[in-house]
Amino acid sequence: MSDKKTNDIQDTASVELTPDVPVEIVGINFRKAGKIYYFSPNGHTLKPDDRVIVDTSRGVEIGTVKVPNKMVDPSEIIPPLKKIIRPANKDDLERDARNHELEMDAAIICKKKIAAHGLDMSLVAVEYTFDNSKLIFYFTCESRVDFRELVKDLASTFHTRIELRQIGIRDEAKMMGGLAVCGRVYCCAGFLTDFVQVSIKMAKEQNFSLNSAKVSGACGRLMCCLRYEHETYEEALRQTPPVGSIVMTPDGEGTVTEVKPLSSEIKVRLNGTDKDVVKLFSCSEVRVLRRGKARPTEDTADEGAEE
Predict the structure, then answer these.
(1) Measured between alpha carbons, how far is 127 from 160 in angstroms, rounded to an integer?
(2) How far is CA 100 from the centre of its chain?
(3) Bridge partners, 216 (sequence order)
(4) CATH topology for 241-290?
(5) SS3 of 24, please?
(6) Are 52 and 13 in contact (CB under 8 A)?
(7) Best CA proximity match to 256, nearest among 245, 271, 264, 240
(8) Which residues, 6 or more positions from 63, have their beta carbon under 8 angstroms from its beta carbon?
(9) How far apart are CA 67 and CA 258, in angstroms?
(10) Residue 244 and residue 202: Cα distance in Å, rounded?
(11) Nearest Cα residue to 303 out of 169, 200, 177
(12) 55, 84, 127, 138: which has the highest count of C-beta atoms within 10 A?
């Protein structure tokens, strides 16, 4: 995890940063696998999974410590660096639990009101701020929706500030969670704090089938895990003759038909033999006479932008 975080959550108190003078921080997120924000510990010694109360632009929030107290250079922080209010106490935790119960009730009511207003939108999640000053409804829809009357209806029902926030399909998968084809919890819901940039080029370089059903996640976008070994494959491919290269092998001259970059092996169809005679060689055993067609340098599809 990178130490540098964009602290775009605002609160009312901040620490003045002095160049070249290390500053103490803690990293906090507000939902599982959520983005981590830096705050000043405000004199408290905190450890991972401690709950804390902070004042943000959305109101007072309860968060979870992910990065314990540490000293960092001010250049690694984008100001302002806000202070936590206090570690969460028993009453705070009980209130947080009650809020989650209220969120479930609010979701049921909101779904009924969406149907009553005849809106083509799907409710994904509901979130109360810790101080109940705002109630946020996350939804998806395929087209533009005029939900002004719905907001008025919800405000008169819950008697608090209402925010309806449209999210994309990747965010929907992150919020709802589930099991991926590998049998593990979705990466985005389990540990990824930000969506990574993924392209179809990564699938090609790793010799994946380009069948969209096999390289797409539950959200319908390219799987985030395609990026995990991308740099390793790129480095290995630089040391491997591409398909179509003419090489000299211990058994004579031939044409590369398949590459196995991680094991540094290539399959070669030998010249002057049946077209079905293909042998496997280590890259160290062959000499490249003429390189094949260069691999693509531009992505043909970009699925990485967060929605």
Answers:
(1) 13
(2) 24
(3) 222
(4) SH3 type barrels. (2.30.30)
(5) strand
(6) no
(7) 245
(8) 28, 29, 30, 37, 51, 52, 53, 54
(9) 45
(10) 20
(11) 200
(12) 84
Calculate the CA 289 to chain-centre distance: 43
Q: DSSP assignment, residue 120?
A: -
Per-residue tokens: 3 = 């130490």
Which of 67, 84, 49 minimizes the C-alpha distance to 2? 67
Domain with CATH 3.30.300.20 in the chain: 94-167
Class in CATH terms, 94-167: alpha beta
Whole-angstrom Cα distance, residue 256 to residue 283?
A: 11
User: Per residue of the chain (307 residues), what is the pLDDT tens digit?
Assistant: 444 443 444 444 677 777 878 889 999 999 888 888 899 999 999 999 999 999 887 778 999 999 999 998 888 887 788 899 999 999 999 999 999 999 999 999 999 999 999 999 999 999 999 999 999 999 999 888 899 999 999 999 999 999 999 999 999 999 999 999 889 999 999 988 888 889 999 998 888 888 888 899 989 999 999 999 899 999 988 889 999 999 999 988 999 998 999 888 999 999 876 667 888 999 999 999 988 765 443 343 444 433 3
Tokens of 266: 């290539």
* Contact between 261 and 236 (Cβ < 8 Å): yes
Comma-separated ranges of CATH 2.30.30.30 domains in the chain: 241-290
Residue 108, both tokens: 């049921």
Cα separations (Å) of 49 from 46, 87, 257? 9, 11, 52
Would you state the structure tokens that stand for residue 93, as one six-digit string?
């935790």
Q: Which residue has the tokens 């909101």?
A: 110
| Amino acid, single-letter form, for residue 212 | S
CA distance 20 to 86: 28
End-to-end CA distance of the chain: 22
Dist. CA 130–CA 38, nearest whole Å: 19
